[in-house]
Every structure is written in structure tokens, then in C-alpha cells.
Amino acid sequence: MKTVAVIGASGLTSTECIYQALKDGHKVVGLTRNADNVKIPQGSGGADADKPYNDPNLKIISGDVTKLSDVEKVFEDEIDGVIVALGGKTKDVGETMLTDGTKNVIAAMKDKGVKRLSVVTSIGAGDSENQAPFFFKVLMWTAMKKIFTDKNNQEEVTRNSGLEYCIVRPGGLTVDPPTGVVNVIDGEAGSIPRADVAQFCIGAVLDPDFKYIGQAPCISSVGGTSWTKDRSAAARGGENK
């Protein structure tokens, strides 16, 4: 058993990370401004979707990622890896929330000696602009310009963190059930269920031999190079705890 921190715990991708980490037998510590919104996800949850959690291995902390003192509360537990999957409209959360919050997470990780970090951004961020479909590029250049400035800055602070990071750039996100298919792609991105993105993120922070550490892969359900979850004892924490 290992302990995974999920930052932005009420988001649609984050709730998938929580659900699947718990199902894999791990503990989860989540941070969110909206603790009441942390519910079993639609994609993986089946008939239990949208129900509140009742799991002794889940701890949810109400707090603001842009406040270092709130982030530090997460690390009062012994954390093995951190997934950052922040979201929200710029008008609601501010124009630099992603970057500021990720800086706080990195600072807290370094203070406690936590090494593994997975940060979910988006297809089109950083040097992946040409992998976004044209209609999405138009949004990036117009209505989503501010959020992509923040995403790009978030990626930069992650790359410069000195941690064992993986920046995850998913294609179009759906709430479909998990397919178990995650492809790392070089060309234009297709769609992918949030449930499959969650599996990739969990692998990034727990798999000792995860091959995309120090990289920023774009992932989709179609094309590219297939990634398979590591189900070894080491990845499940059997050799450590």
C-alpha cells in the first residue's frame, strides 16, 4: 500500500484518480476547495457513480492550492507520489492559479522529500500545439488564451522543479468507462476517457520504472505507442509497505 496525494480532488479527472487508486489498494489524500464535490466518478463508478465516498483510506482536506499553508496539510501524511489535476474557469480561479498552485505543491514536496509528480495539463500546451485539432487551436488562440498561458507556465515550473515529473497532456476528455487503452502519440490527438488518463497518472507516480519520467507525453485512445499499466508488486507498494 502506498499513499497518493491528489491536488484538485473534486475535478472529473481527479475523482477518477482517487477511485482507481483506492481500488488498487492505496491510500489517498486529496486537496480541494469543494470537498462536498468529491464523489465516485461516472466513468469507473458504474452504479455507484455520484455517490459520496465511504472509504477509510481516503482523506479529503478542504483548502486552497494557492495557499502554501493549505498545501502543506496534505504532506502531514507520508506521501509517495502526487497527482496535480487542477481546473476551473479563469474568471473563477484567477489567471495564475495553475502555476501558483503547482509551485506550492513542488515546494511542499521538496520540503518532505517526495519525488514523484504527475501534472495534468492538455493537448496543445507547451510544444504540443500542432497536436491539437484545428478547432481546438482556435479556442486556444481566443477564448482559452489565458488558461493556456497559465498551463504553459505550469508546465515550465514543473520541468524546472528537479523532481521526477511527468507532464500528462490528454486529448479530448470524456467521462466514458475505462477502456484500458492509453496510447502515447506524436500526431494529432483524439479523445480519451478520464478514467484512462487516471490510470496513466497513477502509473507515473507509483511505477518505479515508468518510462515517461521527465517527459510530457500526449495521450489518446487511438494511434501512437501503447502504454500498459505496471501491475508488479513494486508498483502496488508490496515491496515497501
Summarize the structure.
The chain is 34% helix and 20% strand. The protein has 241 residues and is an alpha/beta fold. Strand 2 (27-32), helix 2 (42-45) and strand 3 (58-62) form a beta-alpha-beta unit.
Give your account of this protein's structure.
With 241 residues, the chain is α/β, with parallel strands linked by helices. It contains nine helices and eleven strands. It has helices at 12-23, 42-45, 68-74, 90-93, 97-112, 134-141, 145-159, 194-206, 233-236; strands at residues 3-7, 27-32, 58-62, 81-84, 116-120, 164-170, 172-174, 182-185, 191-193, 218-220, 225-227. Strands 3-2-1-4-5-6-10-8-11 form a nine-stranded mixed sheet, sandwiched between helices. Strands 7-9 form a two-stranded parallel ribbon. It is globular and about 45 Å long.
Q: Topology, please?
A:
Layout: E1 3-7, H1 12-23, E2 27-32, H2 42-45, E3 58-62, H3 68-74, E4 81-84, H4 90-93, H5 97-112, E5 116-120, H6 134-141, H7 145-159, E6 164-170, E7 172-174, E8 182-185, E9 191-193, H8 194-206, E10 218-220, E11 225-227, H9 233-236
Parallel strand pairs: 1-2, 1-4, 2-3, 4-5, 5-6, 6-10, 7-9
Antiparallel strand pairs: 8-10, 8-11
Distance between the termini: 6 Å
Query: Percent range for helical residues?
Result: 25-40%
**Beta-strand fraction estimate:** 15-25%
Mean pLDDT over all positions: 90
Estimate the global geometry from the Cα principal axes: globular
The ordered string of helix (H) and strand (E) elements is: EHEHEHEHHEHHEEEEHEEH
As laid out across the biggest beta sheet, the strand order is: 3-2-1-4-5-6-10-8-11
Structural category is alpha/beta
Number of helices: 9
Please give the largest β-sheet. Answer: 9 strands, mixed
How large is the radius of gyration?
A: 16 Å
